[in-house]
Design a protein that fits this description.
Helices cover about 55% and strands about 10% of the residues. The radius of gyration is 22 Å and the shape is globular. It has 16 helices and 9 strands. With about 375 residues, the protein is an alpha/beta fold. The chain has 3 domains: about 120 residues, Rossmann fold (3-Layer(aba) Sandwich), CATH 3.40.50; about 120 residues, 3-Layer(aba) Sandwich (Rossmann fold); about 100 residues, Four Helix Bundle (Hemerythrin (Met), subunit A), CATH 1.20.120. The strands form 2 sheets. A 5-stranded parallel β-sheet has the order 6-5-7-8-9, with helices on both faces. The relative contact order is 0.08. About 5% of the residues have low confidence.
């Protein structure tokens, strides 16, 4: 299941990967001549553990003239022997399970940067910080849409510093000299459209790896694919809705002033009204809601791993009921989408799961 969940995380970034159930299967891929930019290796595997598999890779399957990049996954209880073995086998990137999406993206982005320090992820930190000094570049040629975007950003992140670009060329020129934390990119603009601007910005990498979110009026699968092919990271429909942009800030910036935008997610009066303002009952409902949210988050991942559409639909219905009763407004919307899924499309489900997991995390903070 962990392997399939990792696959889902990589799929969100359009990262192609092969899966091996154990060390033997991994070695078979390499024996066939397959080459990989990175190998994510679990320490605890049947038949042959991760360290032994890495040892065989180093001895027999090392790419000519370079060191195979390997990320080792292990549990927090593993001891100093593991650290010594990693030093011996030149494994500089280690991650403690369970793996968080932002951690795996972080370590992958560092693999081929010579000046980066080794990445060792310990107990995951709380991703929520303040929005102080975050810079957002908005590329939009329509003055009304620009004003709307700036207004919503200021409501979500009052301390955000916003830069404006009226076309794709201006956005590209800005990024040649600056590195914003987030870019909102209209896809249809004069002089240089959003697709071409994104391609040009991506060519500045590794100095520019800023998340770029497409702003488009088209809601078709081909439009999404066109955005992703150009190098964009996410996709928001116009006109921009505050709740949608709030989720994007949480997803891509890994911070969010939750209390500032609490009204988007949580109607505090809903539980009190349903409980007849009985404070003892309110506390009990909140605790039950938190328990249900945590269980739902885990069970959704299990159903994705099992490719169970019926299971996802059932969980969506259950989560929707919990969200409505507890006044969790955005969660009720995304869980309703899950309840009404008609096909098991890996990409669509990966994107929806990311939204649900993010919203559950926000709701748990608001309920605490």
């Amino acid at each position: 299941n962990n392997r399939i969940i990792l696959h889902q995380m990589l799929l969100l970034k359009q990262i192609k990967c092969d899966e091996a159930k154990n060390g033997f299967e991994a070695l078979q891929f390499l024996a066939k001549g397959e080459e990989y930019d990175a190998i994510i290796m679990d320490y605890h595997m049947p038949y042959m553990d991760g360290l032994e598999t890495i040892r065989k890779i180093r001895t027999n399957f090392e790419p000519a003239g370079k060191t195979q990049q390997i990320i080792l996954l292990h549990s927090s209880s593993d001891d100093e022997l593991l650290q010594k073995a990693c030093a011996e086998l030149n494994v500089v990137h280690r991650m403690v399970k369970p793996i968080k999406t932002e951690d795996i993206y972080n370590v992958l982005s560092k693999l081929y940067k010579d000046d980066e320090k080794p990445f060792v992820a310990n107990v995951p930190k709380d991703a929520t910080t303040t929005a102080a000094n975050v810079t957002v570049l908005v590329a939009e040629d329509n003055a009304i849409n620009m004003l709307l975007a700036k207004t919503i950003i200021k409501r979500i992140a009052p301390n955000a510093i916003i830069f404006e670009a009226s076309n794709g060329l201006a956005a590209f020129e800005y990024c040649k000299q600056n590195k914003p934390d987030l870019i909102l990119m209209d896809v249809q603009m004069p002089e240089m459209n959003g697709y071409e601007a994104t391609r040009q910005i991506r060519m500045l990498e590794p100095s520019i790896n800023t998340p770029i979110i497409a702003l488009t009026a088209g809601n078709v699968k081909s439009e999404k694919e066109k955005c992703f092919d150009a190098g964009m990271d996410d996709f928001i429909l116009k006109p921009i809705v505050e709740s949608t942009l709030a989720l994007a800030f949480e997803k891509w910036l890994h911070f969010y002033d939750v209390q500032q935008a609490a009204h988007l997610h949580y109607d505090k009066n809903a539980i009190a009204e349903n409980a007849g303002n009985d404070q003892r009952l309110v506390k009990e409902i909140i605790e039950l809601t938190k328990k249900d949210l945590k269980e739902s988050a885990e069970n959704i991942l299990k159903c994705i791993a099992e490719k169970s559409l019926a299971g996802l639909n059932a969980l969506g219905h259950k989560l929707y009921g919990t969200a409505v009763t507890s006044g969790l407004k955005l969660l009720s919307e995304v869980s309703n989408e899950l309840a009404n899924l008609e096909h098991f499309d890996d990409q669509e489900i990966a994107e929806l799961n990311e939204r649900i997991q993010t919203e559950i995390k926000i709701c748990l903070k608001l309920l605490s």
